[in-house]
Design a protein that fits this description.
alpha/beta, Rossmann fold, SIR2/SIRT2 'Small Domain', 3-stranded antiparallel beta sheet, 38% helix
Length: 250
């Protein structure tokens, strides 16, 4: 059902900060890492320090990434991703800050200068020595064939998907861009996130504490549900609620 209050809020504001979590990509079939059938139920996450110091850990890391790679590679943006891009083309989008590593915002058309992938992206592989970025598929093909963690052809450094691993620092440039966006936004909408992972979840809250109307759309509870800054809390499927409101508002 169309939520008229959400429609009116979107109509009245022109500098929207959109914050997204795993729930926005559920309808795209992205593998679940934390759920009942998630990879982390039978694999322990590999910490960055171990990745850098141990060949065994690097092989374990690539093996865990291999389990989800086909799903990431073949996933397509859904209506929620497309609705966010529609906000950009209508001139209402200030920034997308996403916890997701699936790259679907970029694939939906969201511009690089309007996107902060706070936890990185699976759509690039990055050398940990010279920071050269390359396409993932050839490296996964090598790993399938050899069972060995791939190395950089340019400098011989260790390669890993360009995502933030446990124990690895977030990129300062991304944190700064997200903080600036939170400071400039006149409205913030959190989509498909439990808002429990920090510092990522601090950005929508920061915007709300400045006085920007704060909307949360999620299936299931979030840590910000009862915060006094929340103007509207909608329970349900992001892919059903959000695109309909955007279509009506813009």
């Amino acid at each position: 059902m169309l939520n008229k209050k959400l429609v009116e809020l979107i109509k009245r504001h022109s500098k929207l900060l959109i914050f997204t979590g795993a729930g926005i990509s559920t309808n795209s079939g992205i593998p679940d890492y934390r759920g009942p059938q998630g990879i982390w139920r039978h694999r322990q996450p590999v910490y960055y320090q171990d990745f850098m110091s141990s060949e065994k850990a690097r092989v374990e890391y690539w093996a865990s990434k291999m389990e989800g790679w086909d799903g990431f590679r073949d996933a397509k943006p859904n209506e929620a991703h497309k609705a966010i891009y529609k906000l950009e083309t209508s001139g209402k989008l200030s920034m997308v800050v996403t916890q997701n590593i699936d790259g679907l915002h970029a694939l939906a058309g969201t511009s690089e200068d309007k996107l902060v992938e706070i936890h990185g992206s699976n759509l690039d592989v990055e050398c940990q020595s010279c920071w050269l970025k390359t396409e993932p598929e050839p490296h996964f093909a090598v790993f399938r064939q050899t069972g060995k963690a791939p190395l950089c052809e340019q400098c011989g450094g260790y390669l890993k998907p360009a995502t933030i691993s446990f124990g690895q620092s977030l990129r300062k440039v991304d944190l700064n861009r997200a903080a600036i966006a939170a400071n400039q936004a006149d409205m913030v909408i959190a989509l498909g996130s439990t808002l429990s992972v920090y510092p990522a979840a601090s950005f929508p809250l920061s915007a709300a504490q400045r006085g920007a109307p704060y909307v949360i759309i999620n299936r299931g509870e979030t840590e910000h549900d009862h915060h006094p800054a929340v103007a509207l809390r909608l329970e349900g499927d992001v892919g059903e609620i959000f695109p309909q409101a955007v279509d009506e508002a813009v």
